[in-house]
Amino acid sequence: MMATAPAPEMLLDHRGNPRPFLDMPLAYEQARLGLAFHEAGHAVLAMAYGMHVLTSEVIAWSPEADAWSVTGKTAFNTHDLNPWHFATQQAAGEIAHVQYLLTYGLWTPERALACTADHDREQAIDVLADFGYSLGRDHTPEDGKSWGMVRGMARRKIGYLWREIRTVALAMDERTVLTGDDIATLTGLANPRLGEAA
Predict the structure, then answer these.
(1) What predicted TM-score, i.e. pTM, was given to this entire model?
(2) Do 146 and 5 meet the contact criterion of CB atoms below 8 Å apart?
(3) Beta strands in the chain (DSSP E)
(4) 163-198, pLDDT tens digit by residue?
């Protein structure tokens, strides 16, 4: 764990706004592992959908004595992006985080709510809008999908890839940062370079 907060830009969402922080009522080690599952969900689904993953990491620091904060970041490049695949991997972090709570016997309604990642949803909405697709927060737009539908797609894909997500999360918790090539080695998934067919 870092003694000081990371650079401010590491804590901003895609619009340049500070990411919201929610209290996760867990011990530090449990919360850190949960964030590793969140980021592993993004990274594994991105790679499974043919995106080139650069890095995936847990970021933890101590803002003051006897206190801690934890977040994460996954970076990837895409080529010929399928907008619904992008949205699904955005939803995967939150879904994998909740699945971690269920799998490890830590689930409560309050903890599940603390896994909410509105910044991931908002980025999906903005990226899909750039491609001319409609993604509704709480409704199904005409010729589009709702965030609930996208979360359902992520839940199904996570079910198929849970072993890979768990493997990546445990390694990330231990090492803090994994490269895309590390993740490919751990999972057997391909980490395609830009311009390569998925």
Answers:
(1) 0.91
(2) no
(3) 52-61, 69-77, 135-136, 145-146, 177-179
(4) 999 999 999 999 999 999 999 999 999 998 865 544
